[in-house]
Each structure stands twice: as C-alpha cells, then as structure tokens.
User: Fold this.
Amino acid sequence: MGRADMTDAQRKLVLVRHAKSAWPDDTDDVDRPLADRGRRDAPAVGEWLRKHAAAIELVLCSPAVRTRQTWELAAPEIPAEPTLTYDDRIYAASARELLNVIRELPPAVMTAAIVGHNPGLEDLVQLLTGEPAELKTAAIALLCGDSPWSEVGESWATDATFAKPRG
Assistant:
C-alpha cells in the first residue's frame, strides 16, 4: 500500500505568461491592457487549464493590467475557484525572485499558478527544467515536481508540459 502523506505527493506549478497586450501611447508599462488578440486567447488559456490543471488552488498574479485581465478571462473556464493573490514581486521579476515567491507557497497547496511576464518566466522554466523554453504570449508551462515548495530549485521539475492556447 502506497504512502499517501503530503510530502510524497506530486506538486504542480502552472506558469502562465499574460496574453498579447496593446501598446497605447502615454501608458505606463504596468497599465498596458490586453490587445484584441489577447482578449481572444485568454479564455483559451482557461480551457486548456480546465483539461490539464483544473485543480489549481492558489493563483499568484502580477498586478500589471495585462496579467490581471488574462486571469480574469481565463478563470471562468476552470471549475476550481482558487485563491487569487496579486503579488507585486511577480511584476518584472527575475527567475531567482520568482523562485523566492514559489518557496513561500503554503505546504498544503498541491497545485499553484503564477501569471506573469518574460523574461522571468522563461528563465524560471529553464532553471526548474534544465532546458531552454520559449513562452510566447498566452503560453503555459505546467511543471510537476516531487519536492515541497520550500525546496524548489534547479532541475526541480520531473515533468514539463507546454501549451500555446489560441482563441
């Protein structure tokens, strides 16, 4: 009979790059909204998550307008109602800064998502998988690992799935 304690269970980390954003004049980067294509693609992100990572318990989202809008359009597509937290550290974060955020995830959470930006997300995927990754807008990296969040680090991921849902 297998041990069912939490320490042995596989954790899932869902990394979502925001959907395509617009570049309006006189708008600060943090305030850039989604472009029309981004508004079409974001619900497709949610549809993909419903099929592959429906049990998301916690979402940490950059406070930038384009990341917030991406999650707002994706979230209705998944059955789970995860706790949503806007974390200022995710905006303009490096891979190492994102790692610090992940290491603080509550131990009981088994599936967590980060909605953020490049180059931090691509660099984080490379750090956790040991392989370079390209995350275009609205791209998803679903990483699985056996260690607790507090021990996430280089080559943590034992499995990685990538998707570029389009609406």
Q: What stands out?
A: The two ends are 44 Å apart (CA to CA). Helices lie at 36-52, 65-74, 95-103, 120-129. The chain has one domain: 9-19+31-163.
